[in-house]
Amino acid sequence: MNSWRPDFPILKRTVNGKPLIYFDNANTAQKPQVVIDAVDQFYCQHNANVARAVHLLSEEATAMYERARERIASWIGAAAPREIVLTSGTTMAINLVAHSFLRPRLREGDEILITAMEHHANIVPWQLLCAATGAKLVVAPIFDDGTLDIDALEDLISPRTKLVAVTHVSNVLGTINPIARIAQETRARGVPLLVDGSQALPHFKVDVQALGCDFYCFTGHKLFAPTGTGVLWARYETLDSMSPWIGGGEMIDAVSFERTIYAPPPRRFEAGTPNIAGFIGLGAAIEYLAAQDFQAIHTLEQALLAQLLEGLRGLGGVRFIGQSKERVSVVSFTLDGAHATDVAMLLDLAGIAVRSGQHCAHPLMQRFGIHATLRASLAFYNTPEEVAGFVAALAQCRAML
Ligand code: PMP
Asked: How far is the CA of 238 from the centre of ligand 1 (A)?
């Protein structure tokens, strides 16, 4: 019996009369009861706005909200909670770096270096900046097995490069990129490095200082926490060198019609009322994760991954998109003669949730010359029985198509 499974109430439900097999974790992960309870308890007992009023509820809400920030900081190895900017997700965190950090430093002819395996969230914000400034987006290639061509990436770093932005783990290929090595190179060249950690943290522990990057972004809903929560980490000096992007309440120290004095980070980047309950839920998710044995999670996920790959190979006619040795339990593939969305709809009838399509990575699909994949993405609450059920259901779909 998987010991984590009972912690996630939704896994008990049925879908189309069948027990749910949830293999869409890279899209969004399920929430443990402790997270649901934390959100519920906040609304039932403590609901108030943060950092504004002097009444008890507001003080309680503020303390809970700031406690979540502290938990996030220590979970990812930040030097202090003030290095944690709370955002609505990875997308907002990356856009914040684009506007507050890079834009004032970017001139016509400068370059932003990304990789061919990025999610649109780590492509489009840079394209918008390039369009506004005349800078150029440069893309490091990947090999056919879905690993990054790291030598090519290093060769593409030039005196014009003003930022390197790389995903830690690909949401399509499952590839884990060698961030510490990339960071060594970017630091030696004095180029800042942004890492999109959205797909990494649900699978392994990350220490942002040990990695040596300059910005680390992630999203709470893939980390078993509520939607609308995300994090940007950067060293305090870096954050303090950045101007605000979004203006409004709470990000200021003083306002007059002539001049506004901005608050220090992280408040400078947190205008308006935040997703208070969501971040309290993220704090609870991190407290839950901190109590788990990540070595055991790694062993289980890698065993499920091996079983899944073997099962799919056994079906025949499967093309894997991404076969890196260093990878998480995310598997994208195509089935000969079958459209991914048709298969996903048939799987849904069998109670199985997977994602089909382009996974917000159109350029990566183009790189592999395909229109869509099926993607099974597994979390630590999945089981060998579910993997076997998934492979059997795929065999049936195959027969029907
Ligand atoms: N980067 C990667 C690698 C992702 O997988 C995702 C979510 N699919 C994002 C960024 C964007 O996350 P969000 O939509 O939560 O901002």
From this structure: 23
Question: Do residues 11 and 2 touch, judged by C-beta distance below 8 A?
Answer: no
pLDDT, tens only, 122-167? 999 999 999 999 999 999 999 999 999 999 999 999 999 999 999 9
**Sequence-distant (≥ 6) Cβ neighbours of residue 80 within 8 angstroms:** 73, 236
Cα(126) to ligand 1 centroid in Å equals: 15
∠ CA 156-159-164, nearest 5°, is: 55
Q: Which amino acid is at 203?
A: H
- φ/ψ of 164, rounded to 5, equals -110, 130
Interacting residues of 384 by C-beta distance below 8 A, sequence separation 6+: 303, 304, 307
Query: Is 382 within 8 Å of 5 (Cβ atoms)?
Result: no
Kindly give, in sequence order, each residue whose CB lies less than 8 Å from that of residue 99, ignoring residues fewer than 6 positions away: 245
Distance separating alpha carbons of residues 307 and 32, to the nearest angstrom: 25
What mean pLDDT do residues 337-357 have? Answer: 95
Q: Which of helix, strand or coil describes residue 88?
A: coil
Q: What is the DSSP letter of 350?
A: T
Peptide bond into 266 cis (omega under 30): yes
Of 97, 332, 360, best ligand 1 pocket probe by most atoms within 8 Å of the beta carbon = 360
Cβ atoms of 251 and 274 within 8 Å: the answer is no
DSSP, collapsed to helix, strand or coil, labels residue 165 as: strand
CATH numbers and ranges of domains, the chain: 35-290 (3.40.640.10), 293-400 (3.90.1150.10)
- The residue-averaged pLDDT of 179-203 equals 98
CB contact at 8 A, 245 and 101 = no
Report d(CA 190, CA 203) in Å as an integer: 30
Pocket of ligand 1 (CB under 6 A): 89-91, 119, 121-122, 167, 171, 196, 198-199, 219, 221, 360
Buried b (16+ CB within 10 A) or exposed e, 342-353: ebbebbeebbbb
Which tens digit of pLDDT belongs to each residue from 261-280?
999 999 999 999 999 999 99
**What is the rounded CA–CA span in Å between residue 64 and residue 60?**
6
Active-site amino acid positions: 360
Mean pLDDT of 239-259: 94
pTM above 0.70, yes or no: yes
- Angstrom distance (rounded) from CA 195 to CA 259: 35
**Residue 275 near residue 228, CB atoms below 8 Å:** yes
